[in-house]
Amino acid sequence: MSRPFASVRARATLAATLVVAVALVAAGTAVLLSLRSNLLGEAGTQAERSAREVATGLAFAKPYEDLPLDVDDRPVQVVDEEGRLVAASEDLERISGTGVDAVKPQPAATARDGGDDDDDDAADAADDDDHGESLEPGEIGARTTVSDGSATIDGDTEDYRFAAVPVETEDRGRLTVYAGAPLSAEHGAVNTALTVMLIGFPVLLAVVAWVTWLVTRRALRPVEGIRREMAAITASEDLARRVPVPDTHDEVARLASTTNETLTALESSVERQRRFVADASHELRSPIASLRTQLEVAAAHPELLDLGGAVEDTVRLQRLAADLLLLARLDAGERPADARVDLAALAREAAEGRRGVRVRAEEDVTVAGSRGQLERVLANLLDNAQRHARSAVEVSVRRDEGPHGAGGGGQTAVVAVADDGEGVPAADRERIFERFVRLDAARSRDDGGAGLGLAIARDVAVRHGGTLTVRDTPAGSALFELRLPGA
Fold first, then answer.
1. In the chain, where are the structural domains located?
2. Which residue stretches of the chain have pLDDT < 70?
3. CA 330 – CA 467 distance, rounded (Å)
4. 251-331 has CATH 3.30.2350.10 classification
């Protein structure tokens, strides 16, 4: 496959992989945070359950030695309202995160006699944990304070989530129970999920990149077929060939259809150009050959020079060259000027000096366009009408409130040229506007011209946003009607 298409595939694959990677990282982060939050919440619930179980025993005035302090090897502390550790798990060796670092219950005298700052800090921590909650004797506090820390039990150190529950006793005052639940399950689950993601995400991204590469190659295969066929058309210059249209009914299929439509239009344009060049060469050959013959005869026999015929052929050649030049300018897309042109005055000027031509015109019928080109249209229409008329030609100029030929609304200027000839057969009413076309009745080059006048007239009309059509009059003669948008 050529480099541009490989680049498209690479960019599409990279973009899809990046999007999926960002989505996976975001989703993985959310999953890890949610998993950790749920496991921490579960650990906090377990710790609170253990703390409330001990608090229940204290509420019922159980002795410290009868409390469930060593269930499941979880750290438990019981602290009085002065911050003194009064009970703890038997194998507790170290603890942090509860605010009371002591691991062995202290006698009451030690607490009273010592009076050190550490016990004061522990008492402040215990007061903070109570949150100022007012309790009745034998009542367990509804509020639970949760904190994270670590503890060493029987030589094993782990991270714990601690729950602090206050309880009011009748004989021992306000006590606070600290119980911990291990976070090993949370750490293990998070680490396992993270390991799975670190292994699975690259594999998934590789699969996404591979699938995107294959799908993009399949999607671009018709485009490559279109490119190859266009390259073959360019190399062979055979505009009759067409690119393959895939049966997918998607953007690529529409691209192929549009490409074929463009090739059809290009083939038609090139064919018209070839026909135009051939016809122009044929039309130019006759007056040039005639003029050359007359000059050669004059060179050999000056007394036989037909000066009038030579001038006539020269004028005819000049007109044909002018017609070809105007058509070339029109085909090149030359835009008409935007001057205001009075069609009534233009029609009178065009009819001046012509025998049998009568003009009926309304005043102030103006259009926007090129005066020279519109004058050429009227001259061509009058030449054609006089060529086929028996005796009279009538030109009428008027305003029409209906829509003009370009499809817009508003005022329309109409110029109608009618003769009293035989008219144009219905089958030939469009063909006569083609270039170098002459009907059987006008085949004579002496009388019929080169067949460019009506083609030029219609092209100019279209360039001005109007139309030029032909139909029969009630008497059966020809009526050419030029419709242009009013200025």
1. 1-236, 251-331, 339-485
2. 1-6, 107-132, 402-410, 439-450
3. 15
4. no
> What length is written for the chain?
487
Pick the CATH number of 339-485 from 3.30.565.10, 3.30.930.10, 3.40.50.720, 3.20.20.60: 3.30.565.10
What single string gives the DSSP state of each residue in 377-414?
A: HHHHHHHHHHHH-SS-EEEEEEEE-S--TTS--S-EEE
Phi, psi (degrees; rounded to nearest 5) at 329: -65, -40
Secondary structure (3-state) at 76: strand
b/e burial code for range 123-158 (CB count within 10 A of at least 16 → b)? bebbeebbeeeebeeeebbeebbebebbbbbeeeeb
Dihedral angle sign, alpha carbons of residues 296, 301, 307, 309: negative
* Maximum distance among all Cα pairs of the chain, rounded to whole angstroms: 160
Give me the sheet containing 412-419, strands edge to edge. Answer: 357-361, 393-400, 412-419, 478-485, 467-472
Contact 213, 13 (CB under 8 A): yes
pLDDT in tens, 323-382: 888 877 777 777 777 789 999 999 999 999 888 899 998 888 899 998 989 999 999 999
- Which amino acid, 326? L
pLDDT of residue 54: 92
Nearest Cα to 17, choosing from 207, 219, 200?
207
End-to-end distance of the chain based on CA atoms, in angstroms? Answer: 57
Provide the pLDDT for residue 282: 72
- The residue among 366, 335, 361 whose CA lies nearest residue 350 is 361
456-466: per-residue pLDDT in tens? 899 999 989 99
Q: What tokens appear for 389 in the block?
A: 């008329």
pLDDT at 198: 92
Distance (Å) of CA 332 to CA 47, 209, 336, 408, 453: 89, 50, 12, 25, 18
Both tokens assigned to 302: 């000056």
Helix (H) or strand (E) holding 192: helix 184-236
What pLDDT, on a 0 to 100 scale, did the predictor assign at position 5?
A: 47
Instruction: Write out the two tokens for 469.
Output: 């059509």
- Residue 10 amino acid letter: A
Are the folds of 251-331 and 339-485 the same? no
